[in-house]
Amino acid sequence: PLCPQESATGPSKCTPQDKQQFLPLGHHNTELCTELIEPCYSLVMTHIFSLLHLCVCVCPINGQCVRSQHGCVVRVCSLCALLLWKHSQYCFSVQKSGGTQLKLVMSFPNYGQAMFKPMKQERDEETNSDLYYFSDFERHNAEIAAFHLDRVLGYRRIPPVVGRLVDVVKEIKDVTTDRKLARTFFTSPVGNVCFYGQCSYYCSTEHAVCGRPRDLEASLAVMLPDLSLAVRRSWRSPWRRSYSRSKLAKWESEPDYCSTVTKTPPFNKGTRLVDFIDLVILDFLMSNMDRHHYETFEKFGNNTFLVHLDNGRAFGRHSKDEPSILAPLEQCCRIRRTTWLRLRLLSLPQYRLSDVMRASLSHDPLHSVAPLLSEPHLAALDRRLKTVLETVSRCQKRQSEDGGDDGVLYDDIA
């Protein structure tokens, strides 16, 4: 069911207009994307692009689809996840350069590549409250859950991510071509095979990643097309944190900060602001404080969607919410109408966000080991969703008291 009036047991009472409002973002592009994907299927399978790339590169490199302002990982997400799980043979693995924590690039025989993030923290373990956000662990289940949440919200702007249980020896140590990585493997006192790689944080014997004794949980994320094929631009977030223990960022001290941002390209025209607010809502729901940059496809300038990458520091704490993540929404008071409608839908008892997420995550292969999000994390999603809707309501009330029209909702339905 796509709108609140529909019943699982009775006939639909939805009008076509109701259904239009409650369809996912990018709904009007579903047929277009499918038409683009199907003719390319056999070609891509025989070309140097793998089917793993197909899911995220076919739509973005077609101007018609990208100019819709929405993500285009539509009908093929489950196919990508299935392929990542079943195409189990790796050609080789190397450590991913850059970044602060251990991650690998896994290459498949069909030229596909996936970003590998190993399990470093138990699902029910909360981040230490004394840690700064920039010192937090990156969690494999956070990457998986972020992909599912992104789809539930109707964004579809995170490349497909799937959980997997890997053999540390057979699928990493024996196939790695990275000598520096290979030198970091060892066997723990209790017989578990471990490795730690080289990185800025947590790459030492004290913070090694260990199998049980060889089995290791990890997330695999489809790699975006090579930059030579689809150039991307990295943008510094205007609401980036200071990454300092003592300094505040400008947005934390300037009450009229949003006015400054909206006068500056690319936020001064188009949908960049509401695109960014979508990302802010995603980050608040999963308590991700580490959003310092975001990416877009270069070819289409400001007429494209944001790519929601790198979500490993999400879902660290369920007992505490971080209201500062919502600062852009609080300060700018602007949100897509379709996003607002989707959030309202997910706040209803019959479509509760926690229930939808629980059902969605149950399809991931690692669910058979243990639920990817603990119940306290799922409950936190509902609590935070209520906070987002209350923030929008305050914005609407404030504008109403000022005597203005409802400029809070950006109408992207008409």
What does this structure look like?
There is one protein chain. This protein is α+β, with helices and mostly antiparallel strands and 414 residues long. The chain has a domain at 232-410. It is 35% helix and 12% strand. The chain is built from 15 helices and twelve strands. It has helices at residues 16-22, 30-46, 51-57, 63-66, 77-86, 140-152, 168-173, 179-182, 250-253, 257-261, 272-285, 327-332, 337-346, 353-361, 375-401; strands at residues 92-95, 104-107, 113-118, 161-167, 186-187, 193-195, 209-210, 215-222, 232-236, 293-297, 335-336, 409-410. It has a five-stranded antiparallel sheet with strand order 1-2-3-8-4, sandwiched between helices. Strands 5-6-7 form a three-stranded antiparallel sheet, with no helix packed on it. A hairpin with an 8-residue loop joins β1 and β2. α6 (140-152) packs across α14, α13 crosses α15 and α14 packs across α15 (375-401). The longest helix is centred in the C-terminal third of the chain and has 27 residues, at 375-401. Residues 1-69 and 72-79 have low confidence and may be disordered. Belongs to the FAM20 family. InterPro entries: FAM20 (IPR024869), FAM20_C (IPR009581). Its cofactor is Mn(2+). It is found in: Golgi apparatus. Keywords: ATP-binding, Disulfide bond, Glycoprotein, Golgi apparatus, Manganese, Metal-binding, Nucleotide-binding.
